[in-house]
Design the sequence.
């Protein structure tokens, strides 16, 4: 065997420095919660595309970057604050901070620097109003949801849902400098979408939350009540999703998509309510219906928002 594999005394060869560097980069990127960032960027871009007026493409790209960086910064601060409960939850125990790969103080500094930079750059690239809305979105997620609501009340997701609803408003304001009815409706749609989306997930991840002492609705009120609440919020969401068309703010293409997706979400919510379960509402089939509802909820929001600019491009809105 060559000396590149084993040294002169049989010691293992040194690890490849580039592999170590890449692993460290992946850990820092993991702090940003890229899955969440992707959805945030998408809805923020839709807000920009729908806004009346024009923005220089370079400045528009900078605004989108600021939205992405702000969301990632909030995610990093969230991971810093939640490192204790992440350590006892199976699906989060391998995150960089609880696993010991990144020090908490470094993660906090990383998030704070990114947050401040994103707000300052947004203000310089677009306008002060967009920067203020972006700062509000970070502050709401960090201080209202993460630090205040998450560990105190089963309504954490209901109120905290506003944190993810800011991006379309931020995108719109980056172009116009003001807020109108359509971006506020998009805010309301995401706000109402968050509880049935997240509670579908929590039905089959409630064990993690129980171990961590997080008062998610299935932990506090039980699975049966959670199933009922999923249906109730979906009943609110379905007509709210159609509201932009009913108010004449979009065209018939969006209206048709909203009706179809709303009906599909309601069908999944009914399936969750009527899924095989014991008397306490606990699943007898590994929460298959809840998993399907969770996946459809992502399709619902993506399809609804994708229909908005398509409706506009086709001249229907």
Sequence:
């Amino acid at each position: 065997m060559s000396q590149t594999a084993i040294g002169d005394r049989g010691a293992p060869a040194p690890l490849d420095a580039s592999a170590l560097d890449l692993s460290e980069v992946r850990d820092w990127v993991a702090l940003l919660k890229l899955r969440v960032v992707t959805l945030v960027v998408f809805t923020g871009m839709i807000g920009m595309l729908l806004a009346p007026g024009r923005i220089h493409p370079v400045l528009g790209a900078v605004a989108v970057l600021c939205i992405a960086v702000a969301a990632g910064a909030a995610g990093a601060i969230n991971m810093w604050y939640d490192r204790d409960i992440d350590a006892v939850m199976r699906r989060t125990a391998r995150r960089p901070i609880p696993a010991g790969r990144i020090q908490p103080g470094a993660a906090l500094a990383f998030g704070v620097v990114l947050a401040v930079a994103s707000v300052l750059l947004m203000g310089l690239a677009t306008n002060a109003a967009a920067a203020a809305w972006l700062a509000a979105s970070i502050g709401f997620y960090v201080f209202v949801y993460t630090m205040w609501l998450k560990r105190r009340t089963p309504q954490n997701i209901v109120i905290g849902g506003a944190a993810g609803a800011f991006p379309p408003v931020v995108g719109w304001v980056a172009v116009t400098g003001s807020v109108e009815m359509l971006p506020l409706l998009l805010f309301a749609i995401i706000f109402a979408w968050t509880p049935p989306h997240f509670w579908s997930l929590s039905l089959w991840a409630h064990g993690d939350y129980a171990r961590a002492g997080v008062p998610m609705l299935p932990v506090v009120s039980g699975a049966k009540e959670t199933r009922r609440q999923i249906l109730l919020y979906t009943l609110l969401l379905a007509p709210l999703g159609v509201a932009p068309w009913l108010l004449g703010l979009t065209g018939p293409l969006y209206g048709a998509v909203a009706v179809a997706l709303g009906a599909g979400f309601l069908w999944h919510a009914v399936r969750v309510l009527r899924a095989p379960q014991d008397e306490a509402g606990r699943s007898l089939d590994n929460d298959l219906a809840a998993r399907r509802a969770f996946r459809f909820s992502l399709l619902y929001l993506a399809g609804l928002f994708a229909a908005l600019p398509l409706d506009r491009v086709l001249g229907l809105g």
Remarks:
- The two ends are 70 Å apart (CA to CA).
- Residues 1-13 have pLDDT under 50 and may be disordered.
